[in-house]
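Collaborator request, handled under Task 6.
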Amino acid sequence: VFVLTALQSTNALYINKQLDDGQTTNAGDSFQRFAENMYKLEIIQNKIFGLKHPSAKQMIVPGNGTTHHVRRPEELPYLFQGDMILTDQQMAAVIEYAEEQLEELQRKSEDSIIPKQRTMTADLSLRWKKFPIKFILQSGVDANAILAGIRLWEENTCLTFKQVTTTANQGSMLRFIKGNGCYSYIGRISNGPQDISIGYGCTMAGIVAHEIGHALGLYHEQARYDRDSHVRVLTQNIQSGYASQFSKQPQNSIVTYGIKYDYGSVMHYPPDGFSANRRDTLETLDPNYQSTIGQRIGPSFSDVKKVNFAYCNGTCSHRLQCQYGGYTDPKDCSRCRCTEGLGGTLCGEPLRTSKNCGTLSLTATSSFKTLSQSGTGSCNFMITAPLNGKIAVQVDSLSFPKQKPCGSTFLEIRYMSDISTTGARFCGTKAKKIVSGTNKVIILYRGSHSTSFSIRYRYGTAALLNAAETSAIRTNITETSIEPQTQPPAVVTEQSTEPEKQPPTVVIEPSTEPETQPPTVVIEPSTEPQTKPPT
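Structure tokens returned to the collaborator:
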């Protein structure tokens, strides 16, 4: 824990300058608007959560002389969701959506669950137009951390970045500064430099990648309009005055490209974000995923996929029939880019690593089989059951350092209907019992010299596996919910060739491609010449 005094005079002037953003010559007016809007959003969000809203004096706002305790540098109390600076238009859209949510709750009618058509005053995910994206490092920043964070995006997307030494006549660009914590704008917000702060406590490559993700147009994952189908906000544990940090984005302000909610996104809040008592403020509806949310190792497969779909879908003229959520790799059009743990030209097989992991493609039978691993290295396994079968996975033993969220060592089990998104990660010693949503399960082992696991698996029908009371697998076992409350498992035997469903307000061109292919993104006209990103 470190103590942060809210916006002392120097910081207040700096944030005022950020909020001004060239829209007015009076920085004080910009700050005043932002503070008033944050207070308004706080009142609305408290009503949505059924909480007593704080007075203006209780609000954590710059200039009130309050000293407050901040656990993470990306949880700045005076910024939206802790690390984002919003333009007037973006803030207005957030407040409008919060007001609509409150109206729906107050009506309590059937009509209240039907999303309203909203008119947005601006594109909330402004795309970058010219590549490479130029950036400059101001004095005092950790250059190694910033360059490492940039590489995480360059190595996995078609995007490129170029370091420059001046902001003069450069057009749109990123300026990395050592500010008070970690924060960024959402999308490209001007034709000049825009700041990303990588301050004290922010110098991890994954945190840098998180802030760059905002600048590329990514919002926080738990702010998705469909987040209530995946996580529960524990309002009793949120610090007073921070309810607004748990607001949701309107459906037509973000584009998901049909990619499902990802617990392992680098853009997801940690489980105890903005906590008043060190207890969790977010709880996954499937408790197996509680140690998955909040990782800051690097962008997940789904994070990268969204950025590639937004910026790179014109790179390859021919699209491959990739499996299991894979898609044509914009960095190598002859191959598919596969989710972690899968490989091959079309992502149809477990990825073999340098570790001697034994057989990687496993077949479940009606009798239990055992799979175990230990020691340093990575192993990827795919378990397959007969058509229409489900797979029961019994974790008998785990030996990993206990972390929240799991760090670089863990056992990951992907058992939902979409095995391309991050699975449930386990680190510690608590055992679990799991029944899959399809006839496929992916097992990832990320180990060190002192880690190990042992599981047993078999197949059966869903009813049989869920009802089974086999004494041999109940010793010291904690049974848990195994599916999100709003997403019953679908029986999937082969990779679907149906196109993914798009959010209804997203404008795309008709496509007949399989679900793993990106739709054509329609971007607001720009006065700048567009330069196609290099492959």
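The cover message to the collaborator said: "The chain is about 20% helix and 20% strand. The domain at 350-479 is CATH 2.60.120.290 (Jelly Rolls). Please let us know whether this matches your experimental observations."
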